[in-house]
């Protein structure tokens, strides 16, 4: 059974979160469905988002609303949405944080400069995430090795000011991402995993596929990717082990979904 959440408007189409469970109620997917028109049509530019932020009558002024909020995040213009996932009680996933980044954003020596979407599958409540203000150094001394997903690294000290990002948290990237370091031409689809300080301690707090507009615009079929795991989880629920990108049979939408939920 699939349950759809509230759709938001992005460019010429809509983006809708959904949750799917088996007949026995076991979580199967938490996903985000992009109308094909979102990636093939017109999207707001960085210039337009910056102008909207200073307008007397802004269009994008509420991240909880269907039109989202224009924010300066990662020192670049971004259009952001916060949308709850339906039927998420059996997994750590709480809400969708969706960002359209028309000018990309800093990090990885310029690796993520292409226009792209950040699809945050958050694991904490909106009140906790709303309170995150950055960029700044993460408010904890370190992350225990057993909590860091296999193959992931923290940012080097010289770029620590980019670690803790407004409305998100600290970002860890896979060491084998082809666009690292500083090769944006190779950037297509990379899974970031994020941490947030809770009562002074770091917790794995979001999974974030970053997908370029170019990649989604040309995408057809199905691809599945591993979600690298930590040794120690911050919860005792079912955790995703893979994620996928797929098109529907009529090629009218593109889905990005967490799946392979296993009890930890």
From TrEMBL:
Region (Disordered), start-end ranges: 1-22
The protein, known as: DUF5602 domain-containing protein
Native organism: Haloarcula salinisoli
């Amino acid at each position: 059974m699939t349950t759809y959440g509230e759709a938001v408007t992005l460019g010429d189409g809509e983006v809708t979160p959904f949750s799917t469970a088996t007949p026995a109620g076991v979580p199967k997917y938490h996903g985000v469905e992009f109308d094909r028109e979102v990636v093939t049509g017109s999207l707001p530019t960085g210039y337009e988002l910056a102008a909207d932020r200073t307008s007397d009558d802004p269009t994008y002024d509420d991240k909880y609303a269907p039109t989202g909020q224009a924010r300066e995040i990662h020192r670049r213009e971004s259009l952001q949405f916060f949308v709850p996932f339906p039927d998420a009680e059996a997994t750590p996933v709480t809400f969708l944080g969706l960002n359209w980044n028309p000018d990309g954003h800093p990090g990885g020596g310029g690796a993520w400069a292409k226009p792209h979407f950040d699809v945050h599958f958050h694991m904490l409540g909106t009140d906790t995430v709303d309170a995150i203000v950055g960029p700044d150094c993460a408010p904890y001394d370190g992350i225990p090795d057993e909590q860091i997903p296999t193959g992931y690294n923290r940012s080097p000290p010289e770029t620590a000011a980019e670690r803790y990002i407004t409305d998100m948290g600290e970002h860890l990237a896979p060491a084998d991402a082809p666009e690292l370091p500083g090769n944006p031409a190779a950037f297509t689809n990379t899974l970031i995993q994020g941490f947030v300080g809770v009562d002074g301690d770091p917790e794995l707090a979001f999974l974030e596929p970053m997908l370029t507009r170019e990649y989604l615009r040309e995408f057809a079929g199905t691809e599945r990717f591993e979600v690298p795991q930590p040794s120690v989880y911050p919860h005792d629920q079912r955790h995703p082990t893979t994620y996928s990108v797929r098109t529907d049979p009529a090629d009218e939408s593109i889905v990005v979904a967490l799946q392979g939920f296993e009890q930890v």
